Amino acid sequence: MSDTTLDGLAVQLRRDILEMLYRCQSGHPGGSLSVLEILMALYYKTMKTDPSNPRWEDRDRLVLSKGHGCPALYAILANKGFYPREDLWNLRQLGSHLQGHPDMTKTPGVDANTGSLGQGASIAVGMALAAKHKKASYRVFAVLGDGELQEGQIWEASMSAAHYKLDNLTFILDHNGLQIDGTNDEVMGLGNVMDKFAAFGFQCFDVDGHDRDAIAAALAAPVSGKPKFVRCRTVKGRGVSFMEGNAGWHGKPMNAQEFEAAMKELGGQQNG
Amino acid sequence: MAESKSLRVAYGEALAELGAVNDKVVVLDADLAHATMTSLFQAKHPDRFFNFGLAEANMMGAAAGMSHSGLIPFASTFALFGTGRAYEQIRNSIAYVSANVKFGLSHSGLSVGEDGGSHQSIEDIALMRVMPNMTIFVPCDSAETRKAVFAAVEIDGPVYIRVARPVVETFTGPDTPFVPGRANLLREGKDICIVATGLMVKEALTAAESIAGRGIQAAVLNVHTIKPFDSAAVLAAANRCGAVVSVEEHSVIGGLGSAVAEVLAGKSAAKFCRLGIQDRFGQSGKPADLFKAYGLTPAHIEEACLKLLGK
Ligand SMILES: Cc1ncc(C[n+]2csc(CCOP(=O)(O)OP(=O)(O)O)c2C)c(N)n1
Ligand SMILES: [Mg+2]
Prior knowledge:
The complex is a heterodimer. By secondary structure, chain A is an alpha/beta fold. Chain A has one domain (3-266): Rossmann fold, CATH 3.40.50.970. Chain A has ten helices and five strands. Chain A has helices at 7-24, 29-34, 36-45, 70-80, 120-134, 152-163, 184-188, 193-199, 212-220, 256-266; strands spanning 61-64, 140-145, 169-175, 203-208, 228-233. In chain A, helix 5 runs parallel beside helix 6 (152-163). Chain B is α/β, with parallel strands linked by helices. Chain B folds into two domains: 4-169, Thiamin diphosphate (ThDP)-binding fold, Pyr/PP domains (Rossmann fold); 184-308, Rossmann fold. Helices cover 40% and strands 20% of the residues of chain B. Chain B has 13 helices and 14 strands. Chain B has helices at residues 7-21, 33-36, 39-44, 56-68, 79-85, 87-94, 124-129, 142-154, 200-212, 231-241, 256-264, 287-293, 298-308; strands spanning 4-6, 25-29, 49-51, 72-76, 102-105, 135-137, 159-162, 167-169, 184-187, 192-196, 218-222, 225-227, 243-251, 271-277. The mean pLDDT of chain B is 98. Chains A and B meet through helix 7 of A and helix 2, helix 5 and helix 12 of B.
């Protein structure tokens, strides 16, 4: 049975994302909209977190390695109660705790600094390795972009994850097929990512990246002795028809008409 | 009215123009062609444009290989990812053998703005300056950016061109000289010399004009080449004026301010202070708000001059 209970929230979170980005006239709509259901599956169906104690030692960790998708994360953390929703409207302003890219030293609930692509995967490996070393039971999730997979560091991280048998670690791919300069295939073809991660020693899952239940089921599936890889098939700009599948909306600010059209299409109502 | 243009657009246009007269020139990018503006070269010379995707280290290494094979690669990405992630590829594959590779890296300094500290390179000049064989250009406007590109291709060896993101007034002209390694005295003045580079040159000129109203004559020296450094010009200005203020959109450690200090040490009794980013990281904000918060406005330069002169 699908979880229609969260449908309304998904609409509201998309509205929040667009409003944050519209207000600051910068930032990344496409990749924030494609990653939303992945982050919802994590924060509402999978991860143990405590908004009143963001640094709780036994919490599950999220590393948003594709850090530019952080508006989606920020909207969720506000909804979970890590900080007030009003904070969202200061995104990217001087002095705001909501930086252009995730900053663990400023934002409650953010577990790692990312934004320079390729680095988050290794940070997640380190967290998972520390859990094994300390015999702690928390899990670690890293959300990667498909363009980001072109960074060599991703594959160094993957090799080490399998080498250390990090079955407490999951790499989740936001596979929207697009990056900045075009499709992955036009810029630097990735080949078959399922085969690649399998060859690197991961247990691999392939799901519809906008189906929260399917994602959550893959995240819950037991694995032993291997890290997990979940390929989420997504649409960049999901939910706003003129952004969907369009690389031009990777990092472009909306004008007033575009913002209005997007909000109208999303429906729902609450604005900041 | 003076034209305004982004330095990165000028960079892309110059590459496209250069490509038309030099068929050895090839351009490499790392999924940022529409941000570094190498897309302008790509549109004109698609067969000489190579996108490496998000793989800066590989791109720099491949640029070395292309140069060993007779091509003249210009590799581009953001300043932070080029000088940072690919640092050791630049060091060993390029600078160590003085490979004929140019890298025009954009989105340097605080003026990246809202993307925040993770994207604001405040240390790239320092990183490149310590490498033997490296030439470093830091253009102040679009006209100078164009000249830097054409000068770079004349140099046999690695050249770093530091390119800023914002649209700014083009205040130098096509005839303003650009001789690599030779600083330009843009304004005469006997009381104090403001030594500036990049976007801070215009701010320095504005500050100099303003303190002229208080009877202080400030010279402005545009150091568009950080390496090789024009020690003679800086020393001469210091000894003439007796006071020097350096200003840069970069850490005061390792960049222009350090280069000036290295020249003055033991050779000049001039009073000296360094303006720039004071050993801290950047953060999100509008470029103008950041310049205010980090002390990089004409008012800050003016204040520093007055303080140094005891006024
Ligand atoms: C090391 C590094 N190089 C370049 C960039 C600039 N950049 C930001 S997002 C992006 C494209 C990312 O594509 P992808 O991973 O597919 O993200 P998504 O489609 O999910 O937005 C690039 C090149 C960066 N942030 N970090
Ligand atoms: Mg993508």
